[in-house]
Amino acid sequence: MADLDKSQASEELVGIRNTLNEYREAYYTKDAPLVEDNVYDKLYNRLLEIEGKYPDLITPDSPSQLVGDVTNDDFNKVTHDIPMLSMGDVFSEDELSEFNDRIEKNVGHEVDYNVELKIDGLAISLVYENGILVQGSTRGNGTIGENVTENLKTIKSIPQKLSKPLSFEVRGECFMSKKEFLNLNERREKEGLQVFANPRNAAAGSLRQLDPKNTADRKLDTFIYTIVTFDDLNIKTQSEALKTLEELGFHVNPTSEVTTGLQGVKDYIDKYDQIRDSLDYGIDGVVLKVNDLSIQRNLGNTVKVPRWEIAYKFPPEQAESIVKEITWTI
Ligand SMILES: NC(=O)c1cc2c(=O)c3cc(F)ccc3oc2nc1N
């Protein structure tokens, strides 16, 4: 970075911002990406690098100032009282160790992690009152999401009535299985419609249908991973929260594990990087969360991401592996 003077930096930033905003528009409002994630991530990291060196060049419309998806004006808006944050990303085991070192330095000892697959879908929020689903929404920009309650009610794995009359909010990932993605694209091709690029865009496009009947046709699924606001359920860890969510009737991904320190996380990453292609749903990495909820609370969040979790991103899946025959599912 030493080589870049301020005027060159300013010029490069204008180009990067325009390109990234073009990518975001295609990705979030048309659910049809122009580039693979890793291309977007690289350009986005260059933006952060330059803005980090010249903070006074940061503009309010810079992609670095926006969190998550762009919302579509056709939907009513929902305000997330507790923002739906994104996650910090790391791309190497060294960066993973740096994250772990920061946590251990802050906490003063080794911590247990709850390690989960990073489902490649779109984040959703579900609000229940006395055990009844009253509102479902997308992440949107983290603070303002789209009200897609009627669409989410068509998804079989989302309970409309819980096994207990609880009033709380849960969050998770809405996704489309690879099998359903193949079937949907075959149907669309026969009907002369544009096919979806990948299961994540098919899920986003299907959830954000104005007519819930269209969503119902698309066989979406969910994995719920967080209890946000809750009556005192006396839950102490993330792994307990997942168990409670399952007991309440939510679809919870069965592969998460609790590990102490980093070696277990690395073993988990290696295991699922190997069998990734044979899963019937897309994953783009592994999420490690400090398992103890009181330590999570003490570590807190930055403006955009929690300090107590990180997403380790796999290298992009080879396109043909998505359409490869599914050998077995988890
Ligand atoms: N894609 C995922 O499979 C996945 C995503 C998130 C998040 O985005 C996420 C964001 C937060 F602010 C806090 C916890 C989270 O936990 C998460 N856990 C997961 N398993």
Which strands sit side by side, in order, in the main sheet?
2-11-10-3-9
- The helix/strand class is alpha+beta
Total helix count?
11
Query: What's the story with the biggest beta sheet?
Result: 5 strands, mixed
Q: Beta-sheet strand percentage?
A: 15-25%
Oligomer: single chain
CATH homologous superfamily caption of the largest domain:
DNA ligase/mRNA capping enzyme
Residue stretches low in confidence (pLDDT < 50, at least 5 long) are 320-330
Over all CA atoms, what is the radius of gyration?
A: 20 Å
Query: What is the CATH class name of the largest domain?
Result: Alpha Beta
Mean pLDDT: 88
Q: Which series of helices and strands comes N to C?
A: HHEEHEEEEHEHHHEHEHEHEH
Second rung of CATH, namely the architecture of the largest domain:
2-Layer Sandwich
Please report the total strand number as a whole number.
11
Shape: globular
CATH third-tier fold name of the largest domain: D-amino Acid Aminotransferase, Chain A, domain 1
**End-to-end C-alpha gap:** 45 Å
Question: Helical content, roughly?
Answer: 25-40%
When the domains are counted, the total is 2
- Distinct ligands: the ligand NC(=O)c1cc2c(=O)c3cc(F)ccc3oc2nc1N
Task: Break the fold down into its secondary structure elements and pairings.
Blueprint: H1 6-29, H2 37-53, E1 77-79, E2 89-90, H3 93-107, E3 112-119, E4 122-129, E5 132-138, E6 144-146, H4 149-152, E7 168-175, H5 178-190, H6 199-207, H7 212-217, E8 221-227, H8 238-247, E9 257-260, H9 263-275, E10 283-290, H10 293-299, E11 309-313, H11 319-323
Parallel strand pairs: 2-11
Antiparallel strand pairs: 1-6, 3-9, 3-10, 4-5, 4-7, 7-8, 10-11
Helix pairs in contact: 1-2
Bound molecules: ligand 3B8.
